[in-house]
Amino acid sequence: MYKSIEIDNYAAYEPYISSYTMSVHYNQHYKKYLNNLNNLLSKYNFDYSKEELVKNIDVFPIEERANILFNLGGVLNHELFFNILGSGPISDELNDKLIEDFGSFDNFKNEFIRQANLLVGSGYTFLVLNKEKKLEIINIVNQDTPYSYGLIPIMNLDLWEHAYYLDYQSDRKTYINNFFSIIDFSKVSSNYEKEI
Questions:
Q1: Is the CB of residue 95 less than 8 Å from the CB of residue 114?
Q2: Which of 57, 29, 42, 58 minimizes the C-alpha distance to 2?
Q3: Does residue 155 contact residue 188 with C-beta atoms inside 8 Å?
Q4: Which CATH class is domain 92-193?
Q5: Handedness of CA 165, 169, 175, 181 (dihedral sign)
Q6: pLDDT per residue as tens, the chain (196 positions)
């Protein structure tokens, strides 16, 4: 059984994300994915991390794989999103890599925002590390995960309506722009550095 991550203070990201939105997002959405996943997997014996489970989905009956992957993606994607919220400085290693792959930090930020605004429907914008160890920005719909494509997610922005609609209604653009005010780049840096 996978355990949930904990959020200590729902109000920590105000005024950009309200405590009410964080509570609903965490308790009603993230925990539902986690409970569904644990229920789906309860009849199987395995010893995979969540990331390994994506790569070993073929050990489960084919008729259950889509449901497992959907809920697994919901858990992985939410945990990454919640874990990188906060405030903290970027490491020299990640900053140098962003300059190498995007030209500057500002170019990276602008491209991330541009990509997020291009996403149609529900999903996430990710900063990922590809097989060539290059950083790239991608959009993935629904609860698919970059791990399914051999990509390692470093940070993401949740663009499902439940992540922002209570605070921003249809003004998704402002939510996207405000995201950069509540990223803990020390955690993003740690995500990057453990993969290089």
A1: no
A2: 42
A3: yes
A4: alpha beta
A5: negative
A6: 899 999 989 999 999 999 999 999 999 999 999 999 999 999 998 889 999 999 999 999 999 999 999 999 999 999 999 999 999 999 999 999 999 999 999 999 999 999 999 999 999 999 999 999 999 999 999 999 999 999 999 999 999 999 999 999 999 999 999 999 999 999 999 999 999 8
Q: Residues with Cβ < 8 Å from 128, sequence gap 6 or more? A: 135, 136, 137, 138, 146, 151, 152, 153, 154
Token pair for 170: 């249809």
- The reply to whether CATH 3.30.360.10 applies to domain 18-83 is no
Structure tokens, 152: 């390692």
| pLDDT of 100 | 98
Q: In this predicted structure, what is the pLDDT of residue 1?
A: 87
- Cβ-based neighbours of 144, under 8 Å, separated by 6 or more: 69, 73, 123
- CB contact at 8 A, 124 and 116: no
CATH 1.10.287.990 in the chain, residues?
18-83
Assign residue 136 a region (left: φ > 0; alpha: ψ between -120 and 50; beta: otherwise).
beta
For residue 184, what is the DSSP state? B
CA dihedral 74, 97, 180, 145 (to 10 degrees): -10
**Token couple for 80:** 């990454």
Q: What integer pLDDT is reported at residue 47 of this predicted model?
A: 84
